[in-house]
Design goal:
With 123 residues, the chain is mainly alpha-helical. The chain has helices at residues 9-50, 53-73, 78-85, 92-98, 101-108, 111-117, 119-122. The longest helix is centred in the first third of the chain and has 42 residues, at 9-50.
Length: 123
């Protein structure tokens, strides 16, 4: 069994240095995530703006139909709708959160359904 080292000025300095490294890495990761989220949003907007009116109508119809199927007809989980209805891979999990799909998914449930699905968090 390892005992904790006594808090000495040297140990305190090492802990502070490690915390500084962690905070910098965390900030760097946040910056990359934010830049990626912005790039995805700009790319999606550019794609939407490049579509003809008819293509926008078809895209809207297709996406809403899939959301309706997964959320209303099947009452699937967030992952189920992404993976089984839309046929996306795990790479879309975070992107679905970034564009608001997870918030939309969670807002469709009533309080009882939300509590049942998220009971693991309450245990």
């Amino acid at each position: 069994m390892n005992e904790s080292e006594p808090l000495t000025p040297e140990n305190a300095k090492n802990m502070e240095d490690k915390m500084d490294q962690y905070m910098k890495a965390s900030k760097d990761l946040t910056d990359v995530y934010t830049a990626n989220m912005k790039m995805n949003s700009e790319s999606a907007d550019a794609f939407w703006n490049s579509l003809s009116y008819n293509d926008k109508c078809n895209a809207f119809h297709a996406v809403v139909s899939k959301i309706f199927e997964g959320e209303i007809k099947v009452k699937g989980s967030y992952r189920y709708v992404l993976y089984d209805i839309f046929k996306f891979g795990p790479d879309m999990y975070t992107r679905g959160m970034d564009c608001g799909f997870m918030a939309l998914h969670n807002s469709i449930m009533n309080d009882e359904q939300f509590a049942e699905i998220n009971k693991w968090m309450l245990e």
